[in-house]
## 1
Amino acid sequence: MILPEELEGMDDALRFARARWTRDDLASAQHRMRWFGFILLAISAYTFFAGFMIAALVAVNQHVEINPFQRIGYGINAVINSTQCGIASMMFVIFALIPWFQARKQKQKLGTWTKAGIAAAAPSIRFATWLERQKAPITKIFLGLLTLVALAQILCKVESQGWSSLTALFHTWDGTTAAGMIKDRYHQGEWWRLFTAPLLHGNVVHFLMNAAALAYLGKRMEVLARWPHLPLVFLFGACIGGEASARWINTPSVGASGGLMGWLGFLMVFETLHKQLIPSRARRQLAAGVIFTALIGIVGYQFIDNAAHAGGLVAGMLYAAIVFPASSSTERPNSNFVDRLAGSAALAMIIISTLFAIWKIIHAI
């Protein structure tokens, strides 16, 4: 397979195509910046005004004097503590700010897109093309399991509140009390929540973000490290992340982020130990993923379980460091009988947890 970047005489055509692609991406990102920025500004302004007016009501009801600066403080606190503002900020960062930054960065690199620059980029492009063509059936099974639980949560909401509740799916899904990580119940002996909570999600945005991460990280890990380690690392990362959340975060939590961060941590260490398998530019994408997750965690700290993220990331890194020795081989490691046996047991545990989570959600209607 020969890539266009490796063909002689394609330099001018590739530069022209890249310039057009960069120009289109930048225009699209600027458009999203305007729209998502307007939405964020509108929600923040509305929330600020509501807090500003609440200060007046507090002054009347409690018979106290509140000056204009204190009312402004009420408005600012309302914005800072607003879940809607937090979600809008996170959406702005994910869908507008980061694409705009990447497009600007690509535009600045156009000057280096010479023959030498094209040749340097060819290995990472070849790797991405090869990875895209590989099959990852276990990753698809994971995506199917999360989808089944999501459908159970949606149907539970519809059953309890009617079809009109579908308009609220962007806010909160049902099922958290039934099978999520409710910290006091977990500490009281409901240990099974450690396995069911990673399969639930809070809303459609949460689900779609994790589904996208699962599709990319799962396929990359399944192809490079073989399938048995996919359920093993997910289960290990989700459990360690869930335990970290139970110890450090008091609010209920759901989501596959602990297991997914386990995959990300695993890949970072695994690819560092097997440098001949992956081009250096492709490895840097994983570091960018960690930075992206940290940025989202800072923006959405009110409703994002950073303890689960950190616990899962460390768990995945430890797993890779212990299980896989450093290698200079260009061949992917093969799985043995013990790997397949342990991986099958872990996958069976995840499937059982999925069915149990669905049963708990339906039983709670």
Note: The two ends are 54 Å apart (CA to CA).
## 2
Amino acid sequence: MSSRTDDAGATGARRLRLLFVDDEAPIRMVMGKELQRIGHDVTIVDGGKAALEALSENAFDAAIVDLRMPEVDGWAVIEHLKKAGSDTDVIISTGHGGMDDAIRAIRLGAYDFLRKPYKIVEIDSVLKRVAEKRTLANRAAALESELQTVRGKTQLVGESIAMGRVKKLVERIAPTDSSVLILGETGTGKELVARSIHEHSHRSKMPFVAVNCGALPENLVESELFGHKKGAFTGADTPRKGLIEVANGGTLFLDELGELDKAMQVKLLRFLESGEVRRVGENEAFTVDVRVVCATNRNLEDMVGEGTFREDLFFRVNTFEIRLPALRERKDDIPALAHFLAMRHMKRSSLPENLLSPEAIEVLRGHDWSGNIRELGNAIEHAVILSDGQTIQPEDLPTSVSRRHAANDKPFDIGNFGHTMTLREIEMEVILQTMEKFRGDKPKTADELGIALKTLYNKLNQHQSLDQAKAG
């Protein structure tokens, strides 16, 4: 016999998924109501055998187990959890056990031991300690992914009009629990904006968990996000928390959202609508309290029109939309960004204002930055190393930046070729120099030259045919 009670009003940070096991019906009835009243999800079973079945099918934060029961007693339940590698905290209760039983239970891994009759305030105190312990464990798990990176308070650098709009939106949105969709090209700093939202929210002391949806193996996406029970699929040798559960009480950042397939979009939508998580292989769901911030460099509206992204999910994640400008659209911010990136690389809290020479700043301003802030960061790291901590000069920057800048500034001069050029040769030289400027990006080259992309391809094919004829 089992029953389940829920209380939708409980707060996620304190709410636990509980299994209550006792062979006395009056105790089950009273404790089911009381545990629900103090804000927990409760599954109630009438004996050890039913408890083992429930534990094999579902995940629980804690199990309150009567020690003396017919057929399967509390000792068997503790042994089962120990062998399964479960992280369920066991609280033993008994009206017959003495100190020896208490010591044995603790040695076997029980979290606490209560003598019957116990008061609800006693068990509430134990459960609060369990909740605090699990919150700390979640924080530690969330920090594991950042062990290789030393992070300070997230800074959104830049005073341009475009960044001013972003900062104002973050300031207004952060204190709420509304979902946010961050749009922008690769390397524009979408995760930094998500972190800033988290750090300025009431969830700032809880986990921030970042997930790159595009980097997750397709066959493991559901397990990574929702977790799984032991034996749920080949290779699932131990039960595992999903990243959504790890983020409980905090913020979940789903980057590259557009990379999720339609099946996972359905599961994500169900979670966003209900707040419930069901681990792979389990029958029962449990509730978590997570704020979701999403990001993508793809056009989700176009994907909705193409049928590759669910319209209902798009509306669910897009309560607020933040569009990050590309670096080429905020070139006034480049000096400040470069200075900040140099400080971060050198692990310094301050650097001289003249760290970058005026000539180096001019080169940085003149670059196209198709890789945005990520590309700028790589260029600054390169320059800091070559300059050996001295003022950065243009020659300290990567050649891909400095050479292209010089080529862009140099006017086209047919006198450099040592012979009279035909009109076709001049045309092709202009095309090739423009392609070099845009690093081979043909659509951008065609747009710069004011010709159709098809025309550009035709001219390149003609040029290749002529070269082959000359070689023959």
Note: DSSP finds 19 helices and 15 strands in the chain.
## 3
Amino acid sequence: MSGLVHTEQLRGHRLVVVGAGRSGMAAARLGLALGAELRLLEADSQTLSEETKAALTAQGADIQLGKHVPEQFADADMVILSPGIPVRAVEGCFPKNRSFPVLSELELASWFVQEPIIAVTGSNGKTTTVGLIHHLLTRSGKTAFLGGNIGTPLSEYILGEERCEVLVLEVSSFQLQLSSSFHPRVGVLLNVSPNHLDYHADMEEYYQAKLKLFRHQDEQDVAILPLALKERLEAETWLKARRVYFVNRNAFSSPRLPGPHNQENMEAAYQASRAFGLSENQAAELFPEFQPEPHRTQQVLEKDGVLYVDDSKSTTPASLAMALQSFQRPILLLAGGRFKGGDLTELRGLIQEKVRAVGLFGESRELFSQAWEGLCPMFWKPSLEEAFAELNSLARSGDVLLLSPATSSFDLFRNYKERGQCFQEAVQAL
């Protein structure tokens, strides 16, 4: 645990962690390592295995399962909320005049970071961009940790023994909203479009959460910002970091990263990596080697002239728009699921221009049907598999059959990965 100055920094403090997913568990373990009196709350009694409960209890943790109640927070000195749990979901249990802070796991872990951080946020493209930055840094000879909202929580890095020269973190609006001092050396804002409006009160709250990435930067730091938001961002006079606005220059290429949005992701990744000595020529040489994470405009198979593409990570209308702009071939579109917000009518022009037919599945049928009525043939099936089969019957050589749902997956699947895997299995069975 070489990342901690000493292990008694929370001795005598009651740390209440809400949510026992990977982030919550990492925060709980960090709290125990710091000597905190730990209470772990989890609404779903099936989340924790008996083995895990026994191990945490042996370390002194107080594990409470089921509905949250005021007594669980009455003696709290600090509350850590797992990502995806809105404050409003638990604040009814807080004392009326609470004195404890409510923080994210990212904020807690960041107190013990000594290495420079590159942190990336945005409505779309975060995972690809942090992957690109990590690729550029490690292939150019630096040691770099990749984590945060993608994969490994920062607390797990702090608890580990291995140290890196740079920490590359994907950070979400959930994590940022509950951060009070998080300070990246390089902060990257890719874009802002309607997202997580089932979590945030409105777009302004969502936007302000994103901007918290830069709140604690100073003149020695770098803020990588989209040129499209320059007018609005220039009004943020508190932003002290050196500002670098990026735009798609078509300066780079990578065979597995189609579309103008990926050009922007590569540009942002290069600008962030420049702060650590990477040249444009190096970036141009290294980008083509990059292997993106699955389910992000992933080309699964081409058979009989039809290209099958898994973009299950598309959970908003804005991300669907990016996927549609990535291909110059006629598109058969699979979409649908639990709607998170955004304006589907803004896609009417793209649907009319790019899409030959739409196969809908799961929830939100009416939203899609009303928004795109009359633009192209459209049908609905209850399951992804049924919609895929009917859509595939319409396919002809030269088409792209694209899964890009523009919704969350929680109507039919546990997560977007399971949804993408379902699609890939249907493709491989052809």
Note: The mean pLDDT is 93.
